[in-house]
Structures are given as C-alpha cells and as structure tokens.
Amino acid sequence: MDNLSPQTWWAIFKHVRRWLANLNRASQARQQQSVKALQNVVLAARETSVYLRQIENGQVDHSSEKDLALVWTRLGFELEELGLNKLAKRCHITGKHWAEPDFYDATFLQQADISLETMEKLARQILFTLKQ
Asked: What angle, rounded to 10 degrees, do the helices at 85-99 and 116-130 form?
C-alpha cells in the first residue's frame, strides 16, 4: 500500500470521506452491515494468507480455491451494495483470480493492487474511521 501514488491515495480518501458522510446518515442496521462487511474483508485476507502458506508447503486444494473465489466475490457484491466500490472492485478481481488464475495478466494484477495487505489495510482504516 505504501507504493500507491498520491493521486490514488487522494481518490481513495475522497471516496471513503463521501462514503462515511453517507453512512453517518444511514440507519443503525446499515452501519452494522458495513462494519460486518469490512470485518469480513480482514477475515478473508487472513484466510487467504493461511491458504497461500499451505500452497508454499505443497498443499494445493482446489476446493479451498473455489471457496476463496466465492468468499471474495460475495464480499465484492456486499461492498458494492454499501457503496465501497474501490474495495469491492479489488474483491471481485481477487475472486476472479482465484476462480481463474490465468484470467488476468501480471501487469493488470499489479496495477489493480489486490495484495492481501492492501485490502486488509483499506478495510481496517475504514473500520477505524467508523469507530471515531
């Protein structure tokens, strides 16, 4: 995440600021739904990290890859509904990548910045802002 350009940081900041302003006017149920979705991004990132460690140990499991594809895709839809479109897009790309690893080329994946660290940091930053 440290390698994001200042323009990208500014776009993310404006998007999150606008989203938080809308969320402040939202119902308590909508706010809880937002918190839950953001927490699920952190959980999915950590679940994916565990599976990547298993792959490093030679334990490839296509069932786990299917589950990760579905988890990330569902998160993408949830975040879209909540208006967190930049994070939702990253989740959709991650879901597609787990479903079809050769679908995107390496350059696209690098530019999309779908690293688990980036997505977890974005979710945690928004969660932190929500709790203030």
From this structure: 150
Tell me the C-alpha distance between 52 and 48, whole Å.
6
d(CA 10, CA 40) in angstroms, rounded, equals 25
3 state DSSP class of 3? coil
pLDDT 10s digits, 94-123: 999 999 999 999 999 999 989 999 999 989
Q: Tell me the three-class secondary structure of 8-33, residue by residue.
A: HHHHHHHHHHHHHHHHHHCCHHHHHH
Is pTM beyond 0.85? Reply is no
**The tokens 């690293």 sit on which residue?**
115
Residues 50-98: tens digit of each pLDDT: 999 999 999 999 999 999 999 999 999 999 998 889 899 999 999 999 9
What single-letter amino acid sits at 100? Answer: E
Burial class (CB in 10 A: 0-12, 13-18, 19+), 127: middle
